[in-house]
Amino acid sequence: MLQERPNLRFGLEIALGIGAVLAVSLIASRFIWQTKKKKKITRIIDTIEELQKPNVRMKDPDKVEDIVCQLINGRASKLQVISDFDHTITRIHYQQKPCSSTYSILDSSPYIREECRKKAKDLHSKYYPIEIDPTISIEDKIPKMVEWYTQAHHVVGTSGVKKSDFTKMVESSDVMLRSGCELLFDTLNTNGIPLLIFSAGLGDLVKEVLTHFGTLYPNMKFVGNFMDFDEEGNTIGFKGEVIHMFNKNQSSIHNSEYFNQLKHRNNIILMGDSLGDLQMADGVPQPVNVLRIGFLNHKVEESLPKYLDGYDIVLVDDQSMNLVNGLLQRIFIPLTVRKPQKLFICDSLVMTCG
After folding, report:
1. What is the pTM of this model?
2. pLDDT digits (tens, 9 = 90+) for 194-234
3. What average pLDDT does the segment 6-11 reach?
C-alpha cells in the first residue's frame, strides 16, 4: 500500500529520521549535562558557595583544592589561624564611607590634642599612598614605613591620651568588623582553634575594638604596637620595636614559644590585606598546609597580579568573612553542639578528599 502512496511513505521516513535525530540529541544533551554535573562535584572547592562569587580570584584552583582537602583531613586538631587586623578583620568601608583603622581612631579622636591629630593626619596623607602603591617595591617601601611609624608613635606618645580614654575613643569612632566576624571568632573559640592577631596597628586599640564588639576570646594571641603607660595611665611611649606592615617576619613572636607550642597544628589559614602579611607565618615550624587568603582593597587592577602570586585566594573589595566561614564548614565538625545550626559538613564531601 505504501508503494502505491509514495508521499505517505516519504513522510513517514522523514518523521522517523527527525525522531531519531531528536532522540540522539536528547541522549547527547543528557550525557553532556551529566558529565558537567559530575565534573562540577569532583572538587571540594566547587561545593563551597562562597568560592563561586565573582569577586573571588584564584591563580591556581587545583592548588587551592589540594590545600583545602588537607585542611579537611586534618580537622580542628591540626588547625591554627593567623590574621592581620586593620582592614582584614575590620572593614575598609561601609555604605561607601571609610571605616577607621586603629591609628585613624586616634587621628579623629576628640581625646587627642588638635595639633597631634593634624600631625597624624598629615603623616597618613604622606605615607599611606606609598604603602598601597603597587609600582613601588617592598624594599623601597620599608624605610618609608619606618619613618612613618616612628614619627606616628612620637605623636601618639606626646598626645596626652590616657589608657582610660580608649573605650570612649572606640565608641565614638566608625571602626567596624567585617560581617561574619562574630561567627568566625565564636566558631574558632568554641572549637579550640588558636587565633593569632598579628597587627601593625595599635595593639591596645585592637583589644579595645574586640571588647567593644563582644568578640574578645581566650583563644586569641596578640602581636602589635603596644603603648607604655605611667602609673597614672598616661601614655609615655611604646613597648619594643616598631612593627609595620612589611617587617612582620622579624617580630619577636617568631622567636617565642607560641609557635613551638602549636607545632602540632601545622595546618594554617592566613588572612591579610597587604603583601607584607604573607610573612606572618614565617615562624611556624614546618608548616604543612598554609591557605593564604588576601583581601584586596585598593588599586585592584594594578595590584591583583602580585596578590595572586602571593595569596592562594584573593577577595576583591569583600567586606565580609563569609568565605572563611564557608571554608570552616568544610574543615571540621563542631566539637560542641552549642550552636549546631552554624556549622555543617557532609561526610561524603570529606571522603572525596581521601
Report:
1. 0.81
2. 999 999 999 999 999 999 999 999 999 999 999 999 888 98
3. 54
pLDDT tens digits for 280-291? 998 888 788 999
Q: What is the spatial distance between Cα 196 and Cα 203, in angstroms, rounded to a whole number?
A: 12
Q: What is the 3-state secondary structure (H, E, C) of the chain?
A: CCCCCHHHHHHHHHHHHHHHHHHHHHHHHHHHHHHHHHHHCCCHHHHCHHHHCCCEECCCHHHHHHHHHHHHHHCHHHEEEEECCCCCCECCEECCEECCCHHHHHHCCCCCCHHHHHHHHHHHHHHHHHHCCCCCCHHHHHHHHHHHHHHHHHHHHCCCCEHHHHHHHHHCCCCCECECHHHHHHHHHHCCCCEEEEEEEEHHHHHHHHHHCCCCCCCEEEEEECEEECCCCEEEEECCCCCCCCCCCCCHHHHCHHHHHCCCCCEEEEEECCHHHHHCCCCCCCCCEEEEEEEECCCHHHHHHHHHHHCCEEEECCCECHHHHHHHHHHCCCCCCCCCCCCCCCHHHHHCCC
Domains of the chain: 51-97+176-351 (3.40.50.1000)
- 1 alpha carbon, distance to own chain's centre: 78
With bands split at pLDDT 50, 70 and 90, how would you rate the model's confidence at 349? very low
Residue 330: closest CA among 57, 79, 34, 56: 79
Catalytic residue among 62, 66, 86, 228: 86
Catalytic residue check, 86? yes
Interior angle at CA 298, CA 292 and CA 299, nearest 5: 110
**Active-site residue (options: 60, 62, 84, 133):** 84
